[in-house]
Amino acid sequence: MPITSEVLTRLGVSRANADRHLEALNAAMAQHGIDTPLRIAHFLAQVVHESGHLKHVEENLNYSADGLANTWPARFGARDASGAYLRVMVGGRSRIKPNAAALQLQRKPEAIANACYASRMGNRDPASGDGWRYRGRGLIQLTGRDNYREFGRWVGEDVLADPDAVAGRHCARSAVFFWNRRGLNALADIDDLHGITRAINGGLNGFAARRELLEKARRALRELLPVAPGAGPALTPTHRVVPAQLNLRSAPQVSPATWIATLNQGSEVELCGEADSAGWVKVRVVVNRVLREGHVAQRYLAALPARARAATPEAAPAPALPAIPAVHMEENRADVIRARDGGRAYPLGEPDRPRRRAASAAGRAAMLREIVDYLDVAAPAHLRYRPKGGSTYCNIYACDYCYLAGAYLPRVWWTDRALQRIALGESVAVAYGDTVRELNANALHDWLEEHGTRFGWHREFDLSSLQAAANAGEVCLVVARRKDLNRSGHIVAVVPEDEDRLAHRDAVGEVLRPLESQAGTRNFRHEVSRSAWWRDARFQSHAYWRHP
Q: Do residues 180 and 287 share a domain?
């Protein structure tokens, strides 16, 4: 599946750089299995980001003293007597103060390389010059004598003797070498941007920019290089789930933090190796139309008969069922307003309500902030969301937020009987209590699971990706269903960050708790929860969703 120059220019690459690298990229990707839309999109997003839009194929080590101190603080940061870093204000930002070594080496690229890379990654001492000789080169840069030696074996050339070749004729192959050595096709197959970024970067630096490039790459491939439906790595089921439900986990241990999804009885999975000593086995499975990997206890799986695994002739497509239409109670009622204590089954009808209509990511994020400010969920005068007599209205607020943002989340949904009539091709009128019913947070959790993808919702599996999507102007939700269905579940909007309001991240930049907006026992416009409430033992299941 060769790409074109236009695919690269859609990602912000200049025409000259696209033409310069196109042939080498296509050859290297085809030779080494980067050949499905998902693999190509992820690969291009990372390569374009790492290389500054294919402009940089050699590491720039021309650091200022400030750059040295804040890139390598352990080596170049000034400390006080207690060992804490000293800080100074630079351009309105708090920065680590450079030490004497940084001041001595600033703007001396060769000396910086030999100081920072000596006696590491197979390099010899500073006097050898290996740090400079084997500095970062390639579209995804290789650094250090050991990596150059290993790459040379891979391409069948002595690049130790000719290191400039890595930035020249082998710059595209260096990126593919890095990609293959880290096994990143497997992560691309399950659409794991988070895992790929950590494998390349060591953390999540530039995650939002990488995600934006990934979305551009997907769109460019879809529009410019149409492929047959279903193209890409297929699931080859080997086993099925035996119990009524089985939890898929990110690691082989039982913990709220490892839960990915709940697989229903009969779900088909593909084993990815042998079980460990504790009986956990890695599997692949399709969850909400997304291929995912995780761990399950093997004792809860039954092998599929051999004939069930074999390829079968493609059957004639089944007749398409009528599409299920979105449904609302009467829209644009002027009496359905934020200040009214009632009418909650109806969508907001105030004529001045804002909408998410901007085209750019920044514009859409700004519109989402405007919607949050307009709804002003914590305002005492907005009785529509104000808790009363033990009742809370997280579902009302989430539906209003989605409605104004143009993402369908049902305040009411068809009854089972109405759905049967729709399936028979009948036209069904909206009648409260007869053909439609209200959905609480528990029911919204299940609706998103069953119907969400039909209405443009995409399941996310990590909070860094969810927060990045919100920052890019997408409608994002966290929803949790209670174990006791007689008790209220919960649903919140994850909203765009700004300079004053940020999600809670760990030291490497991974989002632990996103920036939320909610109605509930306590209403707030922008806040980070004190704990990951969705993992509380009261909840049976939770999920993250986004709507472009």
A: no
- Cα 544 to Cα 534: distance, rounded to the nearest angstrom: 10
Amino acid at 178: F
Q: Are 437 and 417 in contact (CB under 8 A)?
A: no
Short-list 245, 233, 208, CA closest to 290:
233
Domain check: are 246 and 220 in the same one? no
Q: How many percent of the chain have pLDDT more than 70?
A: 96
Residues 178 and 257 in one domain: no
Band the pLDDT of 288: cuts 50, 70, 90: confident
Specify if 97 maps to a domain: no
Compute the CA torsion angle 53, 59, 62, 66 (nearest 10 deg): 80
Q: Is the pLDDT of residue 337 over 70?
A: yes
* Residue 170 DSSP symbol: T
Residues 267 and 375 in one domain: no
Judge contact between 529 and 437, C-beta under 8 A.
Answer: no
Domains held by the chain: number: 3
- Segment 189-200, tens digit of pLDDT: 999 999 999 999
245: phi > 0 → left, psi -120 to 50 → alpha, else beta; which?
beta
Q: What is the DSSP letter of 388?
A: B
DSSP character at residue 543: E
Report whether pLDDT(311) > 60: no
On whether both 49 and 190 belong to a single domain, the answer is yes
Give me the sign of the Cα torsion angle 443, 449, 452, 454.
Answer: negative
Looking at residue 232, its pLDDT comes to 52
For the chain, the distance separating the N- and C-terminal CA atoms, rounded to the nearest angstrom, is 26
Q: Which domain holds residue 174?
A: 5-58+169-224
User: Are 107 and 80 in contact, with CB atoms under 8 Å apart?
Assistant: no
Please give the average per-residue pLDDT across 101-114, as a whole number.
97
Residue 130 within a domain:
no
Distance (Å) of CA 461 to CA 249, 254, 395, 532: 11, 17, 22, 14
- Residues with Cβ within 8 Å of 335's Cβ and at least 6 positions away in sequence, in order, are 343, 349
Residue 279 covered by a domain: yes
Q: Are 293 and 190 in contact (CB under 8 A)?
A: yes
Q: Kindly state whether residues 434 and 514 are assigned to the same domain.
A: yes
Residues 175 and 251 occupy one common structural domain: no
For residue 307, what pLDDT is reported? 63
Position of tokens 């209590």?
A: 433
The dihedrals phi and psi of 226, each to the nearest 5 degrees, come to -60, 140
Q: Cα–Cα distance between 307 and 167 in angstroms, integer?
A: 50
Final residue belonging to a domain, choices 261, 285, 303? 303
- Domain final residue pick, 276, 303, 330: 303
Q: Do 219 and 254 sit in the same domain of this protein?
A: no
State both tokens at 426.
């009948």
Query: Is 208 among the domain residues?
Result: yes
Report the CATH number that the domain containing residue 508 is assigned in CATH: 3.90.1720.10
**What's the pLDDT tens digit per position in 205-252?**
999 999 999 999 999 999 998 765 455 557 899 999 999 999 999 999
- pTM to 2 decimals? 0.84
Can you tell me the distance from the alpha carbon of 150 to that of 177, in angstroms, rounded to the nearest whole number? 10
